[in-house]
Amino acid sequence: MIKKLLLIIINFFLILVIMENYKEYQRLNFLDEEYLKEKDKINKEIFLLKEIAINLEKFRLFFEPIYLEEIKKLARKSEIFKNGTYPMLINNLDYLAVKPKKNDLTVFSNFRMFLTEKEKEQKNKLNNLEINYKKLKDKRKEKIYWQNIIITCGLIAFFLVNIFFPFKNKKEKIFNNYLSLLELLKIVKEKNDKYLEKITNWENKIKEFKKSGENLGTSQDLKDIDNYRKNFAYCLLNLQLGLLQKDHLLINKYFTKFQQMKEKILNFLIQNKSQYLNNYFKESEEMINGFKEDLINLKKIIGEIKNYEIKK
Amino acid sequence: MGKSNFLICEIGEVELALSIYGIKEILWDVKVYPLPQVSEYIIGILADDKKLAVVIDLVKFFGISEENKEKILLKFKTEEILVFLAVKDVKEIIEVKEEEIYPCPPMFSSLIPNYYISSLIKKEERFIPIIDIAKILAHEEIKPYTMISK
């Protein structure tokens, strides 16, 4: 549950950042395009102004109408000359062309001043454009850089969640649903079948010793063994019944009993071993130890199921 | 493919299967308090969650001779019914596939009347009759005692 929630949050966050990151890249490309367009425009204006200045100088020197026409042609291409204030300058040149007054330098001087001023203006504009472009580009790049870091961290977090909370770990798989609990019960049952078989062996051995006339074990012992075995088996059946009917009260009740029973049986068997069956089990020392280990494992499994059931 | 779970019990030397539906618990080592002047199938009374319920002896019900006095009780509870069914032993809970259930042939058992056998489980080499608990509880001598006490 925690893992799912974490993954949902990480994925949601990652998707948002990736979308923003993509948009930012698009904005950056657009910024480049806009900058280049504007730069070209300004450069073109500067070029036109320079060309007009050259032609103006030629016109001043030679008074050839061809230069005047060239100035007019260039002025038509320029955005600056579209402004209503400046056609006057052209008109003045026209006037000079009709009545050449070589000494009328004011017209040329005004025109030249205007061209210089405009060129300076355009150069400033270009300079500002470059500064602004760089600033904006740096800002966008920084944003993209941080977004990339966040995406990388998100992906690392995603992998870490998978490593530390693996989905398919056996325990989680077992506790994943009710059917798996039955699977677990099968394991418990298998262990207990083995366990019951051992108890029966002990019982039979005691019976054999009794038959052979040796004073090993009393009737009370046999009765006890039988009782323990019965209790154990019925506890297990009730557990199975509880799991099949999803009766948590029944499950909890018999888990407790089950654990108590195990302890009792183990103590009884160990006691019996020392009292009556020393010789018989001399070579089977490992059996009791293995048995004890089985019980401890079983206890763990049952504890886990119990905790799981309580949490549920 | 349907699967059902059955409780395999012993009454005398006879093995029978009961559907786990309605069986809420298996009890052993419990003291049953005898009731006077009731049907011979009812061997006593038992308290469950502050409610009293009768104990029906299936061994006696099917007329099987039984020396062992020890009884294992099955708590059978539905919304309206609460009874304990006494059997000699409960062996296991088995999962039975649909194809392992057969109709009961006439005169299958000389001990259990066919009327109470709903069908037959054939598992490996075993043939186990499935007992219809509802029919037992509907028996005229038992029915008056099966309702949950208020």
From TrEMBL, chain A:
Coiled coil: 112-139, 185-212
Membrane-spanning intervals of the chain: 6-22, 144-165
The protein, known as: Uncharacterized protein
Organism from which the protein derives: candidate division WOR-3 bacterium
Keyword annotations of the record: Coiled coil, Membrane, Transmembrane, Transmembrane helix
Domain of life (superkingdom): Bacteria
TrEMBL record, chain B:
GO biological processes: chemotaxis; signal transduction
PANTHER family assigned: CHEMOTAXIS PROTEIN CHEW (PTHR22617:SF23), CHEMOTAXIS SENSOR HISTIDINE KINASE-RELATED (PTHR22617)
CheW-like domain span: 3-142
PROSITE patterns (UniProt xref): CHEW
Pfam families assigned to the protein according to its UniProt record, in alphabetical order: CheW
The protein, known as: CheW-like domain-containing protein
Gene Ontology cellular component annotations, sorted alphabetically: cytosol
Organism: candidate division WOR-3 bacterium
